[in-house]
Amino acid sequence: MPLAVVNCGEIVTVAGPARPRIRDEMKNLSIVRGGAMLVREGRIESIGPQMELKAHIADEYEIVDAGGRTVLPGFVDAHTHPVFAGTRADEYEMRAGGATYEQIAKEGGGIRSTVRKTRAASEEDLFETALGRSQWFLRVGTTTIEAKSGYGLTLESELRILRVICRLGAENRLRIVPTFLGAHEVPDEYRGRTGDYIDLVVREMLPAVASAGLAEYCDVFCEPGIFNGEAALRILGAARELGLGIRMHADQLSRSGAAEIAALAGAATADHLEQIDARGIEALAHAGVQPVLLPASVYTLGSKRFAPAREMIDAGLAVVLATDFNPGSSPTPSMPFVLSLASTQTRMTPAEALTAATINAAYSLGRGSEIGSLEPGKQADFVIHDCRDYREIPYFVGLEPAYETYLGGRLVYSRHDRP
Amino acid sequence: MPLAVVNCGEIVTVAGPARPRIRDEMKNLSIVRGGAMLVREGRIESIGPQMELKAHIADEYEIVDAGGRTVLPGFVDAHTHPVFAGTRADEYEMRAGGATYEQIAKEGGGIRSTVRKTRAASEEDLFETALGRSQWFLRVGTTTIEAKSGYGLTLESELRILRVICRLGAENRLRIVPTFLGAHEVPDEYRGRTGDYIDLVVREMLPAVASAGLAEYCDVFCEPGIFNGEAALRILGAARELGLGIRMHADQLSRSGAAEIAALAGAATADHLEQIDARGIEALAHAGVQPVLLPASVYTLGSKRFAPAREMIDAGLAVVLATDFNPGSSPTPSMPFVLSLASTQTRMTPAEALTAATINAAYSLGRGSEIGSLEPGKQADFVIHDCRDYREIPYFVGLEPAYETYLGGRLVYSRHDRP
User: Fold this and answer.
1) Which of A259, A345, B168, B301 has the most CB atoms in a 10 Å sphere around its CB?
2) Which residue of A has its CA nearest to B300?
3) Conformation bin of residue B178: beta by default, left when phi > 0, alpha when psi is -120 to 50
């Protein structure tokens, strides 16, 4: 049944040129006030002032009354690690008590503790936990997530995680873009034999992942002492030959030149970049790599050093914002919170942040023509937020603003409080 | 009908000595695992392991099944400004674009813009807006708020705001402690005549507020250039004579010695304190003034300078955390977000933060024997949070963790998502 979404106080379409938005384009949200939107077969048919569209709303349409609320494209969260067992609330407490992330990692905590728990979990348990968490994304207005493996670090467990990710996508509640991140950390059994582990990733994991069609992208955690630039180039080169796209964790903990490696590798994105400098920014700009900024991990780790968002926008980079949802450094699934961080801590305006969280994120995942904005022909992935002004979404931080979330024109989340 | 809350994964009682908690006491949450709680006539009858209480759950009890979730006392938010017209999302955007709070205030923005809108609003409109926002507090697990006036700054409009605050309390959904904050700012019509405005506050507003019984506390925004120490002492002294308790905005924007003024005035609390030094901390400790820390306003203003929470705890202060909910510097009603800020930005552990947000906050409002912990005889103000470990409440930041919120044993909020 086709849908007519009526009485929208504002529809923030984020419509614009068919490419990632840069510089002042990031401020232009193409807002329709007093609008309506028609949806047919899961796609947007038309958007415009309600007065103009009224004549086209025939009896066949199911009416969705937005009640004067704000309608946005669903957030596209382009960097998450959503499949893991357990939490790391204990380490969170230790950090609050003064321990550093590095100290905790040295004592067997950090990623390795999640790897132990995740390896020990059954595929069914991993799926049930991840399915529960997928509801959190809908609750905050996210309709697409990029989802990385990387807490298995064996052939079998990485494939298991990727199967869970693909099964989540098959539920059709949240769109999922799967990414293979076998090179997330060197597992304990390969300590001191990083080269052997890279061989495993390149010779066994990557071909198995690719032949099973379990991932669209390959990511590497590029950091000196873990996977250096050479290792990253080898893994990403192999991934590219197998037809996978490329993403990269770069310049997070140190300025190692990982941004330049991402540029050299032809990556779609370089993610984190808290330590990047002007040369690194230039390299990304030159190669057309999109930076994916993850301010919630900076916040969670209690660091003050956010990635230089303004310098990147000024340099013409098509900036993306994402949650980095993971149990260690960023246990938040909330894009509204990330928008708040971007505005209060990195001086991105709410409009720039919203562009980074929707259309630019969609392009970074190769889906710019399908999702990320509300335009005729695109997927009807939209959210009715319980506010009258999209700026209230970062402003009233700490709330879940979504009132109803739609994926391909189908209601996948609806908030009904009592009494 | 009496209630039996059963199948609680953990009940975080925060039980302990009948006074504000200091130093290591702040870490001791007195958690009952596998617990149950009996409630009769709005008060807690008993709490203990379910195995022990089982025999006492007679047929007359209505069963509330917590499903293994975590039960906490409702948060007590001891510093909010919840009655105002409009938002300041436009100024939020300007600040993200680089303007400072001070620049915006100079151009007629800031508190004064909210004062203009609030003066122009009808009592009914103010009430409806505030009632809608009161739901936000319940959604995040808050059951009591201290609520300040201060966006009217005329006799008539301050009384109107306080009537709205008291009406909110009479709805019996959220407990409200009303505070008169006529000395929030010098209104435009008194520019350059601060003395005359103080006269108005002392001679007309305070007696009218007290005789109408519209406030329990009086607060002053003590800051050089606005209300200095002398002005604060005069206003607070007059309030005390009228039987009101005393709170004070102190040492927020500059280190002016306001903490010492609060100590001298015998204030229950000194709030903000981002600029306090060791001498100020000593003065508070000596006088038994509780510091109310408001990290969300530091966050929102993009400042890095949080109040020195650890030094205060070490000095034996009974620290309180609150949201400072207001349209300018802290548009968040979320105590879970404040707990997250406390843990990630000021190195309070989740346990210390929870104590500061419940029992210590209750004592700061003169209600330590009634609310703030789950102990026999106290009000049954409790929240079933959708987690298995209270530490997940700050950890999974950006979500609304409350599943069901109870005030005096009565369900006042329940989350039911669809589909």
Assistant:
1) A259
2) A344
3) beta
